[in-house]
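Sample intake sheet
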Amino acid sequence: MKKIGILNLGINNIKSITNACKLISQTYLINSYKDYDKLTEILVLPGNGNFATGMKIIEELGFRDLISEFINSKKKFIGICLGLQLLMEKSDEAKNVKGLSLIKGTVKKIDSKKFKVPLLGWYDVKFKNENINSRGFFFNNGFMVDPVEKEFIQGEIENIIPAYVVKDNICGFQFHPEKSSFHGLDLLKNVIFK
């Protein structure tokens, strides 16, 4: 049993990810820095919405230091949707706002000539790890991450949109595993217990 802490930005659909994590292991919500339990083994940053708003809330709640300390302690950190994008250095969505800069790279608008934007619904993800089945996952976003180091990209849509990013003890999903049926829950569980 691993203790999972979920960072609540107040702009994320906290109910679905909380319910999913509770099916996997012991889970609690972190509404501010003081709520953090040092016995936490997995930290999850979910999010929907705007990059600038997400960063503003992270700063206000004291989550920037918490996230950095947690990752530096080599424990597993999971970013979902906006939670993945906030790990980058900057975003086209908010040009003057600095991200958490935990992964070198930017967040770019998805090319509307190649995909319907926003990317909403089920899209097939092809994973580099042969043990992860390539199948449909639920997306809801208009932007995509573009890491400088392409080897961090472990899953993509049509070799264009990064969907699963891994750097050391950081894992990021552009899709919502908690809304992607039983196989999304299985993938989340595998990442948590890996």
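Comment: Residues 46 and 77 are 11 Å apart (CA to CA). The first strand starts at residue 4 and ends at 7.
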